Amino acid sequence: MSLKGKTSVVTGSTSGIGLAIARALAAEGTNVVINGFGDPAAIEKERAGIESEFGVKAVYSAADLTKGSECAALVKFAEDTFGSVDVLVNNAGVQHVSPIEEFPDDKWDLIIALNLSAAFHAIKAAVPGMKARKWGRIINTASAHALVASPFKSAYVSAKHGIAGLTKTVALETATFGITCNAICPGYVWTPLVEKQIPDTAKARGMTEEQVKRDVLLAAQPTKEFVTVEEVAALAVFLASDAARSITGSLQQIDGGWVAE
Ligand code: NAD
């Protein structure tokens, strides 16, 4: 059974990993709901490009997923538009880098809301339909930081460890309904999220930005190379496929060997 004709919702898909996953799922023939912030003209270009390149329908939702009600509304929008949510990719996320004693309270709240609670709200809204249809794929973009910590990323590491627990719990609750729930744990992927944290990391560690790239980011990755968004997207497509139906509750490392050390 192929993914053709199914519906994918990919949160945070106006950029980076989410955009690559949305495009890869569209290439497999799923209609897609894209979501996230950005320049409206650029988003419309991506949306229309997905339709023309892959021959599927693509719609955009500007839902702000820091709000639980908007996560549920995003799922309802997809169900109203396409009749179902078959593949739910909880991917939207932000980062903030700061020592714990200076970590801004509002950044903690934002990161927990978007990187953890949004997945809870979206999954809660999508599971009834998946259970009724006896098929579903839930894929959470976690991180190597779901498995190991790094200094100065208290909120992010906490949220990502939380996502690991949520992934396993949902997998157990849905296992007999043809639904799988897995997390992808990328190491450093070259996207705007990584690019933007370089100046703050340099400040927190008293380094130059070049040193941060070489001695902090790629130092963690035995391959000494950034993971690509296309590689992460290919893993998401595999997890969405029927070939992966027995993989559930797993945390899939795609990190150039980072957490093996
Ligand atoms: P990115 O900054 O390129 O993309 C983040 C996306 O989230 C964008 O589409 C943005 O508009 C959206 N977003 C931000 N706030 C939102 C909100 N309130 N509501 C809805 N959408 C919102 O970042 P990325 O690197 O592609 O990150 C995607 C995911 O991958 C995140 O969960 C991140 O933690 C995870 N991740 C990234 C890396 C990496 O190295 N880039 C590594 C591991 C995990």
CATH superfamily: NAD(P)-binding Rossmann-like Domain
Distance between the termini: 38 Å
Output the CATH topology.
Rossmann fold
Instruction: Give the overall average pLDDT.
Output: 97
The CATH architecture can be given as: 3-Layer(aba) Sandwich
Order of helices and strands: EHEHEHEHEHEHHHE
Overall geometric form = globular
What is the radius of gyration? Answer: 18 Å
Walk me through the structure.
By secondary structure, this protein is α/β, with parallel strands linked by helices. It has one domain: Rossmann fold, CATH 3.40.50. The protein has eight helices and seven strands, in the order E-H-E-H-E-H-E-H-E-H-E-H-H-H-E. It has a seven-stranded parallel β-sheet, sandwiched between helices. Helix 3 packs parallel to helix 4 and helix 6 crosses helix 7 (209-217). The termini are far apart. The model has no long low-confidence stretch (mean pLDDT 97). It binds nicotinamide-adenine-dinucleotide. Nicotinamide-adenine-dinucleotide binds at residues 11-18, 35-38, 64-66, 91-94, 114-115, 141, 143, 186, 188-189, 191-194.
